[in-house]
Design a protein that fits this description.
- The complex is a heterodimer.
- Chain A folds into two domains: 1-41, no CATH class; 48-274, MetI-like (MetI-like fold, Orthogonal Bundle).
- Chain A has 14 helices and no strands.
- Chain A has helices at residues 2-12, 18-41, 47-52, 54-87, 93-105, 108-119, 126-133, 141-166, 169-177, 182-193, 195-211, 214-219, 230-240, 242-274.
- In chain A, helix 4 (54-87) crosses helix 11 (195-211), helix 8 packs antiparallel against helix 11 and helix 9 (169-177) runs antiparallel to helix 10 (182-193).
- Chain B is an alpha/beta fold.
- Chain B has two domains: 31-109 and 222-253, Periplasmic binding protein-like II (D-Maltodextrin-Binding Protein, domain 2, 3-Layer(aba) Sandwich), CATH 3.40.190; 111-217, Periplasmic binding protein-like II (D-Maltodextrin-Binding Protein, domain 2), CATH 3.40.190.10.
- Chain B has helices at 7-28, 43-53, 68-76, 89-96, 128-133, 152-163, 177-185, 196-201, 214-217, 233-241, 245-253; strands at residues 35-39, 62-66, 83-86, 106-118, 144-147, 172-174, 191-195, 206-209, 220-227.
- In chain B, strands 1, 2, 3, 4, 5, 6, 7, 8 and 9 form a nine-stranded mixed β-sheet that branches.
- In chain B, helix 6 links the parallel strand 5 and strand 6.
- Chain B starts with 6 loop residues before the first helix and ends in a 6-residue tail after the last helix.
- The chains are: A mainly alpha, B alpha/beta.
- Chain A binds chain B through residues 113, 116-117, 120-122, 134, 138-139, 217-218, 221-223, 227, 232, 235-240, 242, and chain B through 67, 69-70, 73, 138, 143, 145, 148, 150-151, 170-175, 179, 182-183, 186-188.
Chain lengths: 275, 259
């Protein structure tokens, strides 16, 4: 019977209980209806004005620049962290993991206040930076990147860590017995095995960084050209001109949508293929 | 063989889910306290007014505080407000344009601008002129925060600076006036332009310095109130009570000026 069933599954794809399909459809509705409603509401005839206005283009450019920088930083710091969390018997590991992911559940505005307390002019570290090097981070573009890294990096760390835990260690052991150094095994065996997770983590991190608002506006402030990202500009426009705000939001949505769809085809498609 | 859950159980669950969605809608239609939408800067003061200056009754109003523009958008989109109190005329205009048969628009208070500085005023700022002229101990220009010009506090601040002939480049244009205050209180900026009432609310952490320029000080925010349905007696009475002597005394203790 079990063989017959498996055959049926393969032929018709009826492996999904009806209830699951219904709930999945509901989930799609939850995502798509507000988006659709937004698209209906947007005064598309004005889109040219908004896209070509220097204010929103500056904000978009700043958003793209900072979110890419933040993603690169998050990968450079997050990959080693994920490795250490997944592969070493570090004491208090679960506490370290919790500390490194808390920024994800913090209200972003609180994350911004925490960053000010640490790196602000009167902050724990910021005061030393100011005294020793004359470096003041708040209200600068690097502050935007720091806020984004702080809030978005956990998405990368958690995704990659769980993938690293799921890898087949015997393959690595085999490579080692064949004389490969630990660094070589990491580079040529382990990391390729978790590549889909790394890509997924990068995408999640970038998306979170691109939409980041609360921590940015609290820690980095808002000034055109240096710290006013597109989400911040959108929020402010909402106060004065709802139509303009909606169009700005659509620019963000469309850019993100294009990137997410093309990434899915190019790379994360491998994720589906591997399973 | 496969186990099937009894059907009744599923139906019950569906009903449960439906009830979750419907309950809040139903409860909205019950006995109705007066719903007041008020500008965020009135938060503590209006609570105080209702508690002390208005006649105690069984129908205490439900007050929702947010930025005037947020409230205006909510009302225009059908939020069930009986009274709207705006911190600026623009948002009031937007609302009354959509409310047929509204009551009279009544001025209820004013709010002046002050310079917020760190407690103790370490840079010795005495007025708006100093914001552009003074430097900190390292010789750098003072860091000044303003509210963004999309919010009334930012518009008033720019008008005040222009009236005083002060040209300065702020380091940040905050999304609301309380965020300006926060930046000053945390010491991230040396000064910010805020409402006088904000200082009352943040007593102790920041000090207020008058703008020190008559033209700049003449710029005030005007608070306007309206009963959205001109036939709603309770709403009309509430708006009326906002201008009586008792209410004005309470408002003045929170830093508001007479209308």
């Amino acid at each position: 019977m079990s063989a017959a069933r498996r055959g049926t599954h393969r032929r018709t794809g009826r492996t999904t209980p009806v209830a699951v399909s219904v709930m999945a459809a509901l989930a799609i509705v939850v995502f798509s209806v507000p988006l659709l409603a937004l698209m209906v509401r947007v005064p598309w005839s004005d889109i040219e004005d908004v896209v070509t206005s220097s204010a929103s283009r500056d904000a978009l450019a700043l958003s793209l620049l900072t979110s890419v920088c933040a993603t690169v930083c998050a990968a450079m710091l997050g990959l080693p962290l994920a490795w250490v969390l997944a592969r070493t018997a570090m004491p208090g590991r679960s506490i370290v993991r919790a500390v490194c992911t808390l920024s994800m559940v913090m209200p972003p505005v609180v994350a911004g206040v925490a960053l000010l307390a640490a790196l602000g002019r009167r902050g724990l570290v910021g005061e030393l930076l100011d005294d020793w090097f004359g470096v003041r981070l708040p209200f600068t573009t690097p502050a935007v990147v720091i806020a984004q890294v702080f809030v978005a990096m956990p998405f990368f760390v958690l995704t990659v860590e769980s993938a690293l835990r799921g890898t087949d260690r015997t393959v690595e052991d085999a490579a080692r017995t064949l004389g490969a150094s630990p660094a070589y095994v990491m580079r040529r065996v382990t990391l390729p095995a978790v590549r889909p997770a790394i890509v997924a983590g990068l995408v999640l991190t970038w998306a979170r960084a691109l939409g980041e608002f609360g921590a940015t506006v609290t820690f980095a402030g808002n000034f055109p050209g240096t710290t006013r990202t597109l989400p911040v500009a959108t929020y402010l426009a909402l106060e004065s001109d709802v139509d303009e705000a909606l169009l700005m939001a659509m620019v963000l949505v469309v850019v993100s949508f294009i990137v997410l769809v093309s990434l899915r085809d190019r790379w994360t498609g491998a994720l589906g293929g591997a399973r | 063989m496969t186990y099937r859950r009894p059907r009744g159980c599923r139906v019950l669950r569906l009903v449960g889910c439906a009830a979750l969605f419907v309950t809040p809608l139903v409860s909205c239609g019950g006995s109705d306290p007066l719903v007041v939408f008020a500008a965020a800067s009135l938060t503590d003061a209006l609570d105080d007014v209702v508690a002390t200056a208005m006649s105690p009754s069984d129908d205490a109003p439900t007050i929702s505080y947010a930025g005037s523009s947020t409230l205006a958008a909510q009302i225009v989109n059908g939020a069930p407000a009986d009274v709207f109190i705006s911190a600026n005329p623009t948002q009031m205009d937007a609302v009354v344009a959509h409310a047929d048969g509204h009551g009279p628009v009544t001025a209820v208070a004013t709010n002046s601008l002050v310079i917020a500085v760190e407690a103790g005023n370490p840079h010795g700022i005495t007025g708006v002129d100093d914001l552009a002229a003074r430097t900190d101990e390292a010789g750098a220009a003072l860091l000044v925060a303003l509210a963004d010009t999309t919010v009334p506090a930012g518009q008033y601040a720019q008008q005040a600076l222009a009236a005083a002939g002060v040209a300065l480049t702020p380091v940040t244009l905050e999304a609301d006036v309380r965020a300006v205050l926060t930046k000053v209180a945390l010491g991230e900026v040396d000064a910010g332009v805020v409402y006088a009432t904000d200082i009352t609310a943040a007593a102790g952490t920041v000090d207020a310095v008058p703008l020190g320029h008559p033209d700049a000080e003449s710029i005030t925010a005007r608070y306007l109130a309206v009963a959205l349905d001109g036939s709603n007696e309770r709403a009309l009475a509430f708006v009326d009570a906002l201008t009586n002597a008792d209410t004005q005394v309470v408002l003045s203790t929170w830093g508001f000026g007479a209308p």
